[in-house]
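Side project, low priority. Logging it here so it doesn't get lost.
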Amino acid sequence: MPIVSIYMIRTSLIWLVLTVTAGALLLTVKTTGWWPGGWSMRMPHIEAGLVGWFMLLIMGVAWWMLPRIPWQHHRRGHPLWAWGAYALLNLGMILLMTSPGGSIISGVGSGMYIAATGAFAVGIWPRITSLREKLEKMGKE
């Protein structure tokens, strides 16, 4: 398993623990009402669950499991694209979770999400080929 996949999957599990903790806090606030400002945790809970856990888990498994490119030096694609996507996604999440909604900082965080998705797509794109293309390239060598 590539090291970038290991980091993505482990970090996604950390985000899962954080989102479950935030969800438990939200349920406690809802049932007891002991912290009126507790509903401010709703959006960070959603961000940590959907982007932190789910998106990082998908990206880590995809980088690991998609077919390798046997005729290139970096058989899984250049890992800098995956590392860049990993960094941008986590930094974007931290910015979005700590900034007030509608601010410039939250816009920068959202832009980091888009940039992370683009970087991952660029890094993984050469690995998405049809079987015919793969057989043709292997037959030429």
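Brief comment: The chain is about 75% helix and 0% strand.
Revisit when time allows.
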